[in-house]
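Whether sequence alone determines local backbone shape is best considered at the level of individual chains. In the encoding step, the backbone of a single protein was reduced to a row of integers, each denoting a local shape. For completeness, the protein is quoted in full, as a sequence line and a line of structure tokens.
***
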Amino acid sequence: MTSNGRITKPRSLRKWAGAAAAALGLSLSLLGAAGPAFAAEADPGDVGTDTSASGWCSYAAPWGGTFYCNSDVKIKLPNGYWQAFVIGTNHGVYTQWSSSSGLSGWKLLNNGYCKEPGNHSVDVWDVNGWQFNVTCIGMNGTRYYDHRNSNGTWSGWTTTRQR
């Protein structure tokens, strides 16, 4: 976690908290109380490793996805929901986010392609509210940045870091 406390890597505490939230949601539904429809989807949770030793990982349902193990980073957005970034099986940088409407589905981020994971091959830097940089080490070994503007648009991949 960074000093701003908003970028995280999966931790066992998060798994416990997710289980507690799921149990609370289940008990509320048994009592007939209405809970938030997407409470379990707000945080992607821990990454599950494929047991076939293929090097692929995924998030638990409903986030899902198949991506290189150790290539995920997630960020808590100012509205309290989460956005995840991963390196897909074709080396593409994919993102998915949660909102009050549910999950966005996995989207390729501006045709960005990265090396296999390691040394923060995909990461999030310079978080300032809704603005941040997604960074990855390209197939040629160069670090690239894709800046998210506060209005939700993206700059496209460049070697220049924006703040």
Confidence is low (pLDDT under 50) at residues 1-41. The radius of gyration is 16 Å.
